[in-house]
């Protein structure tokens, strides 16, 4: 109980923590391997990245070692994408992630720990192309 | 084709395999063992390896972009994972139009396991003609 409380307190102290910006090119071969993996043959993806491709450019969460002191494993609770401009092959995207929230909530088989990560994606022209909010759950 | 509230999107049925999970793990760069290592998955109280949430999101993204074609642009897309899905079981992606406001269309999307349970629920907003 007290161990769990201190894990949550230590994690809550990380709210607002920003990870280092990660810049990655949107490569044709990477997009091709991604659309092959998801099984989406749309020829549009020869030029453009499909809606969830951004998650393949940079980690969608920050590594928070102390979270591993809670529960047995991770689950993905959900993802929310907002799109502001298209992402096309040849772009260079910079992803910056941060810890947006941490809280505990009762689940059907005991308490769960929720960590909300937010990632902002900016292209080589400095235009924001997308934002992703992800809910990571420790169970 | 007119877009009207209540209209259903043509359904998309996926047949994920363990091989596809490995392929997706590589393409995304997510090597969490619960997606390809049976013994590890069982050690964290899962029935076996499970689909990546983001793979299910990609399936539902395809449902939307297949339906939308070149008629518009995806503006928002969100998914919430309510249950686990395992390879070797079909995954049905479905959706329908919930709101039409000028050029803005809202959709409800979901993924069903082979018992008809909605293991993923979500929503999308598209801007027509953009």
Characterise the protein shown here.
The complex is a heterodimer of chains A (139) and B (130). Chain A is α+β, with helices and mostly antiparallel strands. Chain A has one domain: Hotdog Thioesterase (Thiol Ester Dehydrase, Chain A), CATH 3.10.129.10. In chain A, 16% of the residues lie in helices and 39% in strands. Chain A has 2 helices and 5 strands, in the order H-E-H-E-E-E-E. Chain A is elongated and about 50 Å long. Chain A starts with a helix and ends with a strand. With 130 residues, chain B is an alpha+beta fold. Chain B has a domain at 12-16 and 50-128: Thiol Ester Dehydrase, Chain A, CATH 3.10.129. Chain B is 25% helix and 34% strand. Chain B contains 3 helices and 5 strands. Chain B has helices at 18-28, 38-43, 53-68, and strands spanning 12-14, 72-81, 91-101, 104-112, 118-128. A 5-stranded antiparallel β-sheet of chain B has the order 1-3-4-5-2, covered by helices on one side. Chain B starts with 11 loop residues before the first strand and ends with a strand. At the A-B interface, helix 2 and strand 2 of A face helix 1, helix 3 and strand 2 of B. Strand 2 (74-83) of chain A pairs antiparallel with strand 2 (72-81) of chain B, so a sheet runs across the interface.
């Amino acid at each position: 109980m007290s161990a769990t409380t201190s894990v949550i307190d230590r994690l809550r102290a990380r709210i607002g923590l920003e990870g280092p910006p990660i810049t990655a090119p949107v490569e044709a071969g990477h997009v091709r391997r991604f659309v092959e993996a998801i099984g989406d043959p749309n020829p549009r993806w020869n030029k453009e990245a499909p809606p969830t491709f951004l998650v393949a450019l940079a980690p969608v969460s920050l590594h928070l070692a102390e979270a591993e002191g809670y529960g047995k494993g991770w689950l993905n609770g959900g993802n929310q994408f907002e799109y502001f401009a298209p992402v096309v092959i040849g772009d260079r995207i910079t992803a910056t992630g941060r810890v947006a929230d941490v809280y505990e909530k009762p689940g059907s088989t005991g308490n769960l720990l929720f960590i909300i990560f937010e990632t902002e994606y900016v292209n080589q022209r400095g235009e924001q192309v997308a934002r992703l909010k992800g809910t990571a759950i420790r169970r | 084709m007119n877009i009207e509230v209540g209209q259903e999107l043509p359904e998309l049925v996926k047949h994920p395999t363990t091989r596809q999970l490995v392929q997706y793990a590589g393409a995304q760069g997510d090597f969490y063992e619960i997606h390809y290592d049976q013994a590890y998955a069982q050690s964290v109280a899962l029935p076996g390896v499970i689909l990546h949430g983001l793979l299910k999101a990609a399936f539902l993204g395809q449902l939307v972009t297949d339906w939308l074609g070149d008629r518009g642009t995806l503006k928002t897309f969100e998914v919430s994972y309510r249950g686990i899905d395992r390879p070797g079981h079909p995954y049905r992606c479905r959706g329908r139009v919930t709101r039409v406001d000028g050029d803005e269309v809202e959709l409800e999307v979901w993924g069903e396991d082979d018992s008809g349970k909605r293991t993923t629920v979500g929503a999308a907003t598209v801007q027509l003609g953009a």
